[in-house]
Write a structure and sequence with these properties.
This protein is an alpha+beta fold. The protein is 32% helix and 17% strand. A four-stranded mixed sheet has the order 2-3-1-4, covered by helices on one side. A hairpin with a 2-residue loop joins strand 2 and strand 3.
Length: 111
């Protein structure tokens, strides 16, 4: 605790070793909807940059997939992938591959 206590006591001089205990802390990114409620884990958005005069609105495809409406689909954004994403990475990869095939497959096969 030596170095930690020395630095912590710069902020709280009265801090004693008996006041602290080991524990977990960290920062986790979280996506919130426009009404302020947290979104479910894993949000996938099929989007692209709007064309001149194009719409930037989105349509809900499923609980965790949205699609930009009225504009070409060229990008899949994977958002809100907190720590479970590490253990779900293969399933997430499979889901993204399925989205790529569904959204871009015809275009890719014709290229």
């Amino acid at each position: 605790w030596g170095l930690f206590m020395a630095e912590a006591q710069k902020l709280v001089p009265s801090l004693a070793v008996d006041d602290v205990e080991p524990g977990f802390s960290g920062v986790m990114a979280q996506v919130f909807s426009s009404d302020g409620s947290p979104l479910n884990d894993f949000l996938f958005e099929v989007t692209s940059a709007p064309l001149p005069g194009g719409s930037s609105s989105t349509e809900k495809v499923s609980d965790n997939v949205t699609r930009a409406a009225g504009i070409p689909r060229r990008v899949i954004n994977c958002r809100n992938l907190p720590s479970p994403a590490a253990t779900s990475s293969l399933a997430i990869g499979e889901h993204v591959a399925d989205l790529v095939d569904k959204e871009f497959g015809k275009m890719l096969r014709e290229a």
